[in-house]
What we know:
Layout lengths: L10 E5 L6 H14 L2 E6 L5 H16 L4 E5 L2 H6 L4 E4 L6 H8 L4 E5 L4 H10 L3 E4 L15 H10 L4 E4 L4 H7 L5 E4 L1 H4 L4 H8 L3
Parallel strand pairs: 1-2, 1-8, 2-3, 3-4, 4-5, 5-6, 6-7, 7-8
Helix pairs in contact: 1-2, 1-9
Amino acid sequence: xxxxxxxxxxxxxxxxxxxxxxxxxxxxxxxxxxxxxxxxxxxxxxxxxxxxxxxxxxxxxxxxxxxxxxxxxxxxxxxxxxxxxxxxxxxxxxxxxxxxxxxxxxxxxxxxxxxxxxxxxxxxxxxxxxxxxxxxxxxxxxxxxxxxxxxxxxxxxxxxxxxxxxxxxxxxxxxxxxxxxxxxxxxxxxxxxxxxxxxxxxxxxx
Length: 206
């Protein structure tokens, strides 16, 4: 399975689409995963737990066949029961220690920390394998101010925990993040396009 260690250039971290029929999702994911090397695939964590479990099984098989790690947002129990590689926690550092205890030392535990340097450092100290900051671009969702490039620059110079950049990305932002992010998370930016593979290729230069 892909090792989430710090690379010389950022690795692609893919966010799976939500509210997509399983038959359509399978084909779309397979096409995108075949277009560029992907380090990690993240599943949404909202919805019925039974449906999330079926989604986990479907995506796990597609991703693991391509040596891509799979995490799910917040659902420690689903990650454990369905053989996923870990969780992506959306509450910063609050549940990192719990997830680590439940899933063990080999699991991936990531933490989304918005734009808070302090929350990111707390998550790293609690044992997170990566910290995610965002949104990096302007968005009408929520009240978050964009995470500045300076935050990633500082983090890459001062902190060893890998950092993920995500949210409202465009080619210009990806270019700016390239030297200072360990992973760049792309998902909503491509899934609304008629051709997600082409949309990804416009964003991802590797």
